[in-house]
Amino acid sequence: MTDVTTGTTEAAQTTQTTGTTETRPTVDVHAHVLLPAIDALVAGLPGHAEALALDAGRNGPASLAVSGPMVRERIPRMTDPAVRLATMDAQGVDVQLVSPSPSHYHYWADEETAEKVYLLANEATAAHCSAAPERLRGLGLAPLQHPDQAVRALEHALEQGLAGVEISSHAPGRELSDPAYEPFWSRAGESGAIVFLHPFGCTLDERLDQWYLSNTVGQPTENAVALSHLIFSGVLDRHPGLKVIAAHGGGYLPTHIGRSDHAWSARSDAHAGCAHPPSSYLKRLYFDSLVHDPHVLRELVRVAGADRVLLGSDFPFDMGTEDPVGALRAAQLAEADFHAVRGGTAAALLRKD
Length: 353
Description:
This protein is an alpha/beta fold. The chain has a single domain (about 25-350), classed as Metal-dependent hydrolases (TIM Barrel). The protein has helices at about 35-40, 50-60, 60-80, 80-90, 110-130, 145-160, 180-190, 215, 220-230, 235-240, 255-265, 270, 295-305, 325-330, 335-350; strands spanning about 1-5, 10, 15, 20-25, 25-35, 95-100, 135-140, 140, 165, 170, 175, 195, 245, 285-290, 310. Strands 8-9-12-13-14-15 form a 6-stranded parallel β-sheet. Strands 5-6-7 form a 3-stranded parallel β-sheet. A two-stranded antiparallel ribbon has the order 1-2. Strand 14 (about 285-290), helix 13 (about 295-305) and strand 15 (about 310) form a beta-alpha-beta unit. Helix 3 packs across helix 4 and helix 6 packs parallel to helix 7 (about 180-190). The chain is globular, with a radius of gyration of 19 Å.
């Protein structure tokens, strides 16, 4: 049993520090649930076939041939809470923050369909997590293609007992800096809701349709672009209470933030939107640890702070890690930093009011 408020858990790792024993849960903030009811809801609707064709073109046939069997093999871990919990036990993970598979965004959908999607996603995710509420916290969805609905979707997610919502890096024709999202950012900041920024698809399209570049290059590129919009537009200045968690360690931005700082200092157009050097905003964001390189993880902790990096596995996809704690340990962080990333910071974020 785990209590993310107090940090007590039977399975948690225990460490001796300065003569005292601290017990903290291990918290994975990047884990997904698959919701077949949403697939059934959108099947055959106008726009769905075109969206599938766009996704297929972006990934390429070779990647699709691998991804299909990979996802099918992992369906029990994403749909059956008992299988999920058994896998978590094997990984040494006490608590997961569970978000819908990004394939459920459906940003092509009209307003009526978009509302049905977020209502179903929020309720189904809450139901999945209710199987083990002491170990599973959930996130809903917000339809970025309809900014007026985003606040309502967030409110509905919170009403379901979810911790916040998951969003992509952009919507068709809109970046996260778009003024139309100001009410959403405002409400997210006021409510203390978590906004999990997880890209789906990359606008570089067919340039990345071989060798799974759509994911290996596309995802970190989309993360970097989206975060840059939040920083340079002043969204984080206007809404200092935002709790944004960026998947995939924030992509390329944290390790190349010096270039952003230089542009901010050297050019008036780069300086116009945000009040402080871009690197300073890394300490206002949160990042998961899923960077697949211990040296990059150490650098992420250096530039953002251990109190801004959270354990993430991308459960249970093949671009994640089966051993998130082992991957974290490989970075050889200071003991206090290791335990902050392992779960201390996330447990505080997920505390119940």
